[in-house]
Amino acid sequence: MKLFGSWTAAAVLCLFGAWEVNGILEINEEELFYTESNASYYNESKAVFGNNALLVGLTLIKSAAAKGAVCLDGTLPGYHWHRGYGSGANSWLIQLEGGGWCNTVRACVYRKKTRRGSSNYMEKQLAFTGILSNKPEENPDFFNWNRVKLRYCDGASFTGNSEHKAAQLQFRGQRIWSAAMEDLMSSGMRYANQALLSGCSAGGLASILHCDEFRDLFPKTTRVKCLSDAGLFLDVVDVSGGRTLRNVYSGVVGLQGVQNNLPRICTNHLDPTSCFFPQNIIGNVKAPLFILNTAYDSWQIQSSLAPPSADPHGYWSNCRKDHSKCSASQLQFLQGFRNQMLNAIKGFSNSRQNGLFINSCFAHCQSERQDTWFADDSPVLGSKPIALAVGDWYFERAGEKAIDCPYPCDNSCHNLVFR
User: Fold this and answer.
1) Which of 297, 311, 404, 410 is labelled catalytic?
2) pLDDT digits 0-9 by tens, 39-52
3) pTM of the model
4) 297 a catalytic residue
């Protein structure tokens, strides 16, 4: 199925306004951090897929309350589960939902009145597309697996464990993770002969942070691997010389009590904020890990490299919304960002068990969208689309470490354009 390759944020924000926050009509740095206005959710709407997409209902985790495993507002967490069948009956794919972070009390109070902080606001059904699709022509390797989308309602990539009583905020991401895994294990996941933990964006970061915990749930005879899509957030200098994303992460880690849930092998020699950045932990993940990322991640350009706070005069305004409007010097800056990404994964890529698909696109989250995961005109590297690259790596049909040449060499991209 061919889908148009550029999505406008205006349409996305209208959907967000209807679903989540009334009155959001333009891209706003603060809103980006905890509503994550990337175009991925636009593709989950029936407006794009018609009535052909599989709709899967929301299941609340009843046992979570007794464990204190609750969303920001104290409501129960939940997931969407489509059961596997046939050869996939004992195979499990867990997809961790993304959606930015909240790094201040004010931001988290705002977030708890959205589907990113409360199950009261979550969609009762979600379209399963891309890596979650139940159609072999759309998802050749995982279509008949048990496929679970774990909803994201804590704001710290499923790692927090704290509270703010005055603001009536519960930061219980780590408990949500544990309660969800326990619930799924008791529902049959314990019998899995193969399992894949995946996630997009903030969920992609979570899939890295929880990868080895996921591996440890299963016997050594079970094939267990992890996939991080658009989760390689870099600790880099922004266009003003500051560190916008580091400041945000510092707030997330401090406010939500993340420190004790970060890998000890990292916090033993680095500060906790540094250990929330994937570049400092991917080298120590023991389970096989696949990193799927664009070299010019549109979310990182919008909110980390050139956010309005670092660009008060608006020099980057057009470029951050549409790469075709970037000047030569701006493109040079973005090429520097790509170089930093490639340096960050050098050690990681030396491991035979790990996989890479780094394409030179201006996009964000490519595994959940059908047009980028597996379609007639999907992005490719070496003539191989993302779905086949991930499948070949998971099933060890081929070693997959593909890195694109620099922009503008790739004409298969589905670049995002914001207005």
Assistant:
1) 297
2) 333 333 333 344 58
3) 0.90
4) yes
